[in-house]
Amino acid sequence: MAEGDELAVAHRPDQVSADVANWPTGRLLSMAARLVEKRFDDFLADRGLTHAGLISLLHLADGPRSQRELAVLCRVTDQTMSRTVDHLERAGHIVRAQDRRDRRRVSVKITAAGRRVLTAARREERESDVLLGAVEDYDHFRGQLIALINAAASDD
Asked: Using CA of residue 37, residue 38, residue 39, residue 45, what is the dihedral sign?
């Protein structure tokens, strides 16, 4: 296909949509993941967050946790969690304190600002037409993705 032909096709949404409809499901998942992740990355960055930071805030929403607990729950190394917690603290989303009973343990707690940004991120994910708000049944879609991930992970 000549370069002019490629540009002509790219500017015809009906042809692009027809082409996408023929893609294998794995390719559709891959493309959707990249597009959604890029848009959500931008949303999070504007609020001083990363995906790792958002997941950490989700785990802190129920109450304070040790930094080690967070690392285990987020499935990252202690070093990665340390950097994530540093970033969240600088952004004002969490506070750290030494545990009164065990001075070696650091307790991490979400702040009011952290709760606000977590609420905004949840709303953006669920309702934004450029993220998952375009999906007709968000909860069902999410359940299907979880089932797919669990099935694929169990094969490893």
From this structure: positive
Alpha carbon distance, N-terminus to C-terminus of the chain: 40
- Give the pLDDT confidence score for residue 9 in this predicted structure: 46
Cα–Cα distance for residue pair 84/32, rounded to 1 Å = 26
Domains of the chain (ranges, CATH numbers): 42-129 (1.10.10.10)
**Is 57 within 8 Å of 114 (Cβ atoms)?**
yes
Taking CA atoms, 73 is separated from 35, 44, 57, 89, in Å, by 26, 20, 11, 19
CA 77 from centroid of its chain's CA atoms: 18
The total of other beta-carbon atoms located within 10 Å of residue 107's CB is 18
93, 113 in Cβ contact below 8 A?
yes
User: What's residue 65's pLDDT?
Assistant: 94
Question: Looking at residue 90, what is its pLDDT?
Answer: 95
Regions of the chain with pLDDT less than 70? 1-18, 129-133, 155-156
SS (H, E, C) 6-62: HHHHHCCHHHHHHHHHCCCHHHHHHHHHHHHHHHHHHHHHCCCCCHHHHHHHHHHCC
